[in-house]
Fold:
Amino acid sequence: MTSLFNRLWQFIRKPTRYVGRDLEGNKFYEYPSRTEDPRRTRRVVKYVNKEILNVGRGGFKIPVQWTAWLAHTRPHPPTLEELQRDRFRLEKLMINVKTIQEREQAEREAGLLIPETNPQIQEADQESTAQSTPATSPLSK
Structure:
């Protein structure tokens, strides 16, 4: 019975608090700590759409800023402005990637694209080839 009273008292003293939401509408909450360390609160996400839980099969992923907050890596939750800036940055990046891919595909079709060669990789390949071929020793003659 003491445990029930302690839980009730802690719930009244330190209630669950709404922390924020992401751009998709998922809500993030912080619950009081269940351990002796009051800094280690329990952080959870309440998904708007239950189909989102199918993450392993290419479903929705929560933003990295919220993931860091949930894992206690980040002390403060992200703001909506920060999430919007990051989304804009990713959209711009994807447009640039698509442009580069289209340009490379056009160059490949025109036969203009020369395969890239990295001198450091070539040197490493030559060194590994030299090490794998046995050296002739004067004793073997």
